[in-house]
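ingest -> fold -> write
write: protein_1
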Amino acid sequence: MKNNVLIIDDEDQFRELLARVINLEGFTVYQARTVQEAFKQLANQSVAAIVTDVKLPDGNGLQILERVKREYPLIEIIVITAFGSIQDGVRAMKQGAFDYITKGDEDEHIHVIVERAVEKAQMQAKLHQLEQRIEHKYRFENIIGESDPLIDAISMARKVAPSEISVLLQGETGTGKELFAQAIHQASTRKDGPFVALNCSAFPKDLLESELFGFKKGAFTGASEPKKGLLEEADSGTLFLDEIGEMDPGLQAKLLRFLESKTYTKLGETKPRKVDIRIIAATNKNLKEEAIRGSFRDDLYYRLAGFTIEIPPLRNRIEDIDLLANYFLNRLNQRVQQIDQDALSLLRNYPWKGNIRELKNIIERAAILAEGDTITADLLPKEFHQSGMEQSSSVSSMSSLEEVERHHIKQVLEQVNGNKTKAARILGIGTSTLYRKIDEFNL
């Protein structure tokens, strides 16, 4: 896009004069006499702004405006005419023109108007690129892993995404619940609306209430200015309530009231407000059990758990560990290029209480410590080696290497639900060798 401007006018003298003026301000200028020539230029050149006359030999500048806004929505258009009319001006602005001017009235300032139009177009292009990157980043295709538990969770999330039903994501801390919530939002009909996240465990009760509902100026001591609540911020989009199990019971009642009525009241106000949002909640607790025990409102639980998805912990996704570890390593863009097999073996056999977040941190730490281009087993924290020792102690009664090998193969097969191909890949052996071992050990 850059600083490219297209001028469309059939008056050669005026068009060329305007082109010189704009060119002197540092813009690259393309010219066209007709509508047909203009769209040939647009097919071959990327432009930020168009200056077009209204009356052209084969059409109308307002028709160009309408078509360009449909086919090239990021281009800004300045409509210029020798015979200005209020009616045409109003129509042009309604159709999205950047400005509408009459020849002779703004000749001295045309380059300023063009400059502002180009700046706006470039900003719009940057925002568009950012939105595309965000949309791409949070697509289901970018959730890394091939394990059956993860594929099952993704399949359920894909199915529920286009609906309006509330979704409850249950999983341990660090399993990627917010990533799932973002992907559901991006695959929904609300993807052009906002995605607003709130961690319910990060605020005390009173502050969480004001964050959620907002407040009127003077609602309480210190409320010197009015504040939008996140319900209002999320209007027409999705509100993600992370760690919903930590919400205070009194606030749970207010949230339930909102879910039932779709209305809420700002702190300090009496008039209810209405918003249109979808709720996705997440928790590392078993909310159903919490509701049975009375530590979470059962009526709110059933409102939130319209569709529940279990996000698997990393220890149940052992075959995904290699993929994730190498993904995090590649993202670092450092001199370290690989992870050796001994290190990968330790990673696969670690319990991962912190899940994916912990794995990411471990890879970053090891990459910092690495002297060469490889992460080796000795670069992993001591608890990884202790984990291996604990596993060895669990089979200490097995005096032979054969028994240790049998135990390890059995453990891997159980973790992948008997999938021989996946087990062989994790063990680093061929499928035929695995089948031979299974027969040999009578597994």
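write: protein_2
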Amino acid sequence: MKKASKLLRNITSVFLLSMVLGACGTLSNQKIFAPPVRNEIPEYPARAVQHSVLSVLWRVSLSSSDSEPVEKDQFSSPAVDSDGLRVFVGSFSGIFGCYDARTGKTLWTNLVEGPFDATPLVSDGIVYAGTGAGKLFAWRKTDGGLLWSYTASSSIDATPLLESDKLIIATDSNELTCLDSMTGKWFWTYKRDVPSGKFQLKGISRPMVHDGAVFVGFSDGSVAKLSLDDGSVLSLKKLSKSTDGFSDVDSEPVFIDEDTVLFGTYSEGLVAMATSDLRIKWTHKAKIISSMAMSKNGVVYYSTSDSKIEAFDTKSKRLIWRFDARKGALSKPIITKTWIMVSSGEHSLLVLDARTGQLLQVFNPGKGSNSAPTIHGNKAFWISNGQTLYGMSLVN
């Protein structure tokens, strides 16, 4: 009788699982898995959970034509204006569009030589967007009218940084350029030589400003502190000890406090440095491949080259949790009050518990994603590699 009862339970479980997985094929029913015991993507989900963090409100295709391949690596994320009414997206095919955040309705579009690999910046009624062709555009937020443009030396792969009237852009040729944000007038350029004979990883460090200085990393394994006024070098430090492998410092630096800046490197892991002179304070070994995210309580979240997401406490200098996505490149982790969201080239969009790293939801419409989601209030905006923009509601 016990064996028969156990067999009946197993049959029932398989039947329920097949019903759940069948429902996952529709847009309104996302793939939702129970938190796995080993804190990793399970090979086969054991059971469905009732809690859903994200639900789809609308979706919009970003493809320029029906004949265009539907699966492309989309690295840029959506940008949202301060009032949360408009979403701005640059696609792989060179279409830059403004969409109604509530309905997904197209408000305006511009077609330029793409792709858009960098997330745009929206500020004071202007949208700044850089392309893979090395062009920077400043468009009016309301109607997409061109205010000015600038031609850089190579692909603009990081979100522009705005500080007062200065707009700083970074290219994949280890070059930083500072422009007047209202006119596009050139102020200064700082450049480091691309390492001869060495490959570089996809992605570049977005510069950050602290106390009148620009902090940024480069593909040769060095980090710099530059003057915001004229781009002169205030401090320079070579972090990578590698001579035969990747040495990139591609992560956006984050500031632990007024005196400490944290960089993520490919070869050396986390490196905490003094903001005054870039003196190394401490390190933590990890293989960083995307930008980091720092919470208000001093926990830094980052993705690694072996498809893991880790949470590290910068106060106690200890690893809090590790989540294993098993395979697929991961985007920058995005922090909300309760969850961590990260895009996956294999699993599309993952939602984790920020405290424990447990998997709460997998939204997988297919094609995967390299684009980190963008959160504004109780809404999430996300782009799949299938060139589809999603507007979602977010449970608080």
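write: annotation protein_2
Residues 76 and 118 are 5 Å apart (CA to CA).
The domain at 30-61+289-396 is CATH 2.130.10.10 (Methylamine Dehydrogenase; Chain H).
pipeline exit 0
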